[in-house]
């Protein structure tokens, strides 16, 4: 249970940051997917206001990182800000990004895995993985596990559960589970238990890819990743949550075709929230001291612990995904 049961979808993230400002002060915070006018930038600005020891901003485009970093330095000149190039569509870049982080700091107190890709067309990472899954889950898996020694160092000096790894998920996880038999959308046969429960969301005959099936798989993977992290590292004082930030209008949907944009609008039904409101659940997950203790679940929506689809709170499935993720990253997740 969270500290503020009255917080919800319309609560500004700036209010959450102010409420839990004591848990920001002197912390080292790393955020992926940072770019101008994005939820990543809004998270950065909400946190920077309250005196973190250091902020590390990670993304694939240096010019966009520099723009956000300059804004932080302008508004909060006493905050130390570093930028790290991180292209999660390239495991070589991801490894280099993790290496660069380890050269900057010896601990990380809060990681927010915020980067994502949504695309109407089937695209693949440098390693040949379907882009949404490769960036949104596998890339973050590799980045996070490479940095695990820094979280463990943080946990030794923090209060138990104050060291947090936050994965930005979505209500879109309800579209469907991880497709272990065809996670890469190669046209392989998928058993019924890995199919979307809504038959209208399933792949049509002759089609190997659907943006929304891929999206659902990735967002389900985000939740399972948090579940597995808690199982493996919770006893060391590290806590992980997966968050639905709400429906926010950003350029994340820039790669959607008109048909997919219209589908998205029909689902949201005009219930868009602001960027500031979109950071609230993430910040509760990252900062609320009440969430230092194990909760009934790892999924959060509208600033509260929420029910998630059954296939996202099965530890056997989470462990299976962990093993697949290690295989897809060659198992080399602790060489730094």
TrEMBL record:
Keywords, comma-separated and alphabetical: Oxidoreductase
A UniProt-annotated Pfam family: adh_short
Key word Lyase present: no
Family annotation (InterPro entries): NAD(P)-bd_dom_sf, SDR_fam
Molecular function via GO: oxidoreductase activity
Protein name (record): NAD(P)-binding protein
Organism: Aureobasidium pullulans EXF-150
Lineage of the organism: Eukaryota, Fungi, Dikarya, Ascomycota, Pezizomycotina
